[in-house]
Amino acid sequence: MSNQFRSKHDIHPLDPYIKWLANRAFMLVIWLGVIAMGVLLSKYYGQWNILPRFGSIGIMIGTLLTLSPLFADGIYLSQAEAFGFAGTDEDGKTSVTSEEGRKVSINIFWGVILIVLSSLINAFGDYLGDYL
What we know:
By secondary structure, the chain is mainly alpha-helical.
């Protein structure tokens, strides 16, 4: 939702600095860059114990992306419609989600994928050197 339709009381001064963490494309690019940097530095120095450190940074990025529905609309709003009461859809069935909430919630899926991959890198990244 655009700030022009919000009450001035719903806009937190730090919103511009937090909202970009809910941008899936940005977070995936940052994650790929961090993991690639870890692989390149590990290969360059021939020390594969460097890579798990970058894997742990990847876990943090995945966790932030997973949590992004909580702050995608700003700090104060915190996806308030996601915690609202149920309504009915066009078929007359009960629905508790909103279209906007469903769009941002796909970040949970991507965040979980990044957490799993980064955890594997964090746990076994030093063994990757045996295969590269």
